[in-house]
Amino acid sequence: MADATAAHSTTVHASAVLIGARAVLIRGPSGSGKSRLALDLLQAAQAGALVFARLVADDRVHLQSTGGRLLVRPAAPLAGLLEVHGVGVLRLAHEPAAVVGLVVDLDAADAERLPRADKRTTEIAGILLPRLAVAAATTPLPAVLAFIKSSPDNWI
């Protein structure tokens, strides 16, 4: 029988930004705006809309479930790099690891204006996490900020 606390890890195409004590994991198809949302979150912190934000990873992340939490780390060759459309690849300060507190799915086919409870969570590597599904052609930053600021879990 497998140990329920055993670590599970994988590498996926996604971006992640640490906001306060938890990371936002940003998933979506190629071209959906993962890097853009990461940049928007970093700029929101610079503008004072968030107390703290720092890049964890862009394009590819390493996910590991351990001790009932999902950890995110940058893929080593991409650590500290963020692609900005029209500008190129920037080197930024980054966090080596963070605990995921929210999953944002961009261009989500199941996005709804008033999502049912079963659509507000997702399971990754056996860890149940809050989920925000964002429809295509929708600017995700306002919804992500609203989630973080209204969360009873004191993100900021």
Query: Could you give a short account of the major beta sheet?
Result: 9 strands, mixed
- The ordered string of helix (H) and strand (E) elements is EEEHEEEEEEEEH
| Mean pLDDT across all amino acids | 91
Q: What's the helical proportion of residues?
A: 10-25%
- Class based on secondary structure composition and strand pairing: mainly beta
Strand segment count: 11
Account of the 3D structure:
The protein is mainly β. The chain is 15% helix and 40% strand. It is built from two helices and eleven strands; from the N terminus they run βββαββββββββα. The protein has helices at 34-46, 141-150; strands at residues 8-13, 15-19, 22-27, 53-57, 60-66, 69-74, 81-84, 88-91, 98-105, 121-124, 127-133. Strands 1, 2, 3, 4, 5, 6, 9, 10 and 11 form a nine-stranded mixed beta sheet that branches. Strands 7-8 form a two-stranded antiparallel ribbon. The longest helix is centred in the N-terminal third of the chain and has 13 residues, at 34-46. The N and C termini lie far apart (40 Å). Residues 1-5 have low confidence and may be disordered.
